[in-house]
Design brief:
This protein is α/β, with parallel strands linked by helices. It has a single domain (about 10-315), classed as P-loop containing nucleotide triphosphate hydrolases (Rossmann fold, 3-Layer(aba) Sandwich). It has 9 helices and 9 strands. It has helices at about 5, 20-25, 35-40, 50-80, 105-115, 135-140, 155-165, 235-250, 270-290, and strands at about 15, 90-95, 125, 170-180, 185-195, 195-200, 225-230, 300-305, 310-315. Helix 4 (about 50-80) crosses helix 5 (about 105-115) and helix 8 packs across helix 9. It is globular, with a radius of gyration of 20 Å.
């Protein structure tokens, strides 16, 4: 992507390189300790105090401004409608990007940082993995090898979840997912109670609404987002990160006999590299190319990563 083609006076985006972006947070105190950063760091993620200070601190401050302005607009709208002001519905942030690009770490860092701002201490994080159909259903529909593709999710349930949040319900439940057994956990829910902010993280959260058989278009989950972030990187780099992560999991989580992927623990290094490449080339790569990457332009903000996982530049939609 050429910078000039996407960001300039004649573009709907403003693009800032890392130094320009980092300068926006230099007068703001960094709220996370080294221990908190260690807790949110993903497997193999190159997340250090500098990355948090230079990239995520300005982003959390920008998001905080959006949340505050949404609160003001809410009060003004209720005054205009001449209604007593009810509590504002949670501010919803969608976070999208490829498998292995580091979006889960980004989501956890943002959750921690946003919760440090006194204006909105309750920040909930939900991943869309829990809205995948159970493996038994995927197998029945011939979709087990298309896990992560849009059709593998219960999109109606996910949409209902987001609508319930934006309706201001006191309690909203989401299903949970176990990466150990690689399946939705039956009868296990996570309940969120009137948070100030909800971060919804997943591959396909910026997907536009599908066209129904009768030609009508329904609602999309992203229709209810107040802000959205896309974590981006070169596809070759992401493929390398996926392989690296696979090799680390082979030595850690895959060693657990209860793991769905325990069979991979017995692979040699070269066999594991080949298997990771096969999975990427047959599932994750095509899903990124066909479904995930086309949603990048729908994001409010894009974080573009370099080969070492550090964010190189930020692209923000103009207001």
């Amino acid at each position: 992507m050429s910078h000039s083609a996407h960001a300039g006076e004649d573009s709907p985006y403003v693009e800032l390189d890392r130094d320009a972006w980092a300068a926006l947070g230099q007068h703001t105190e960094q709220p996370l300790s080294e221990l908190e950063i260690e807790r949110v760091r993903g497997l193999g993620e190159n997340l250090d105090i500098d990355e948090v200070q230079q990239v995520y601190l300005p982003l959390s401050r920008l998001l905080s401004l959006y949340v505050e302005s949404a609160g003001r607009l809410h009060r003004q709208q209720e005054d205009f409608l001449e209604r007593p002001t009810p509590p504002r519905t949670p501010f919803v942030i969608g976070l999208a990007g490829s498998v292995a690009v580091g979006k889960s770490t980004t989501a956890r860092v943002l959750q921690q940082m946003l919760a440090h701002w006194p204006e909105h201490p309750k920040v909930a994080l939900i991943t869309t993995d829990g809205f995948l159909y159970p493996n038994a259903v995927l197998a029945q529909r011939g979709l087990l090898t298309r896990k992560g593709f849009p059709e593998s999710y219960d999109r109606k349930a996910l949409l209902k979840f987001v609508i319930d949040i934006k309706s201001g319900k006191d309690e909203v439940e989401a299903p949970t997912y176990s990466h150990l057994v690689y399946d939705v956990v039956p009868d296990e829910k996570v309940t969120i109670h009137r948070p100030d902010i909800v971060i919804i993280e997943g591959l396909n959260v910026l997907q536009p609404a599908g066209v129904r058989p009768d030609g009508r278009t329904g609602l999309a989950v992203s229709d209810f987002f107040d802000f959205s972030v896309y974590v981006d990187a070169a596809q070759g780099d992401i493929r390398g990160w996926y392989t690296d992560r696979f090799l680390r999991l082979r030595e850690t989580a895959f060693q657990d006999p209860a793991s769905y992927f325990a069979k991979y623990a017995r692979l040699t290094h070269d066999e594991a590299v080949d298997e990771a490449g096969r999975i990427w080339d047959s599932i994750n790569g095509p899903n990124l190319e066909q479904n995930v990457k086309p949603t990048r332009s729908r994001a409010t903000l894009v974080l573009r990563k370099d080969r070492d996982h550090s964010v190189r530049y930020v692209r923000l939609r103009k207001l």
